[in-house]
Amino acid sequence: MGAISLCVKTERGVSSSTLIPDRRGGIFAGMVGELLAERCKGIVVTSLHLREELSVSSMKTLLNQVGDLFRGTGSSI
Prior knowledge:
- The chain contains two helices and three strands; from the N terminus they run ββαβα.
- The chain is an alpha+beta fold.
- The chain has one domain.
- Helix 1 (26-40) packs parallel to helix 2 (56-71).
- The longest helix is centred in the C-terminal third of the chain and has 16 residues, at 56-71.
- The chain starts with a strand and ends in a 6-residue tail after the last helix.
C-alpha cells in the first residue's frame, strides 16, 4: 500500500493531512492533492504507490501533466 493524503479547499487556503505515510513519494501525493483541491475548490483524496523514489524533474513533469489534464490546456503550472 502507498501513501494516502486528504486535502480540502477552505476559505483560507488548502488544508491537507497524510492519512497513510509512505517512504517514497508521500510528499508528492500531498502536493498533487493540494493542487487538485485548489483547482476544484473541494475535497481530494490521493493515493500513490511507488516502487522507487521520484526525481525532482519527474515530480515537476507529473505535476504539470496533472494540472494540464485538470485544466484541459497545454500550459504548465
